């Protein structure tokens, strides 16, 4: 996948644990793990909005795009 989720970086910068973050955003810790490990296939804009509000950041602070290597 070419979209990388840097959620773990932002959590470390904000010194937040997964449990507190999940509760503040309104998602399960398991779903936070899915996002952190890059296994998520989609994210709702409402969830992204909540993440950005809790972390006081922009979507570009947690999502980045990289090109896939040529086949």
> Helix and strand string, N-terminal first?
EHHHHHE
Instruction: Give the CATH H-level superfamily.
Output: lambda repressor-like DNA-binding domains
Shape-level CATH architecture = Orthogonal Bundle
Name of the level-1 CATH class? Mainly Alpha
Average residue pLDDT: 93
Q: Which spans have pLDDT < 50 for at least 5 consecutive residues?
A: none
In what order do the strands lie side by side in the largest sheet?
1-2
Helix content: 40-55%
The CATH topology label is 434 Repressor (Amino-terminal Domain)
N→C terminal distance: 14 Å
Structural class, from helix and strand content?
mainly alpha
The geometry reads as globular
Instruction: Kindly estimate the percentage of residues that lie in beta strands according to DSSP.
Output: 5-15%
What's the total helix number? 5
Count of β-strands: 2
Biggest sheet character: 2 strands, antiparallel
Calculate Rg over CA atoms.
12 Å
Overall domain count: 1
Short précis:
The protein is mainly alpha-helical.
Q: Would you write up a description of this structure?
A:
There is one protein chain. A two-stranded antiparallel sheet has the order 1-2. The protein is built from five helices and two strands, in the order E-H-H-H-H-H-E. The model has no long low-confidence stretch (mean pLDDT 93). It has one domain: 434 Repressor (Amino-terminal Domain). The chain is mainly alpha-helical and 71 residues long.
């Amino acid at each position: 996948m070419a979209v990388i989720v840097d959620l773990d970086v932002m959590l470390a910068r904000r010194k937040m644990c997964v449990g507190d973050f999940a509760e503040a955003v309104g998602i399960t810790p398991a779903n936070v793990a899915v996002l952190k490990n890059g296994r998520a296939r989609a994210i709702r804009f409402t969830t992204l909005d909540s993440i950005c509000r809790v972390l006081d950041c922009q979507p570009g602070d947690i999502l980045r795009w990289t090109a896939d290597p040529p086949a």
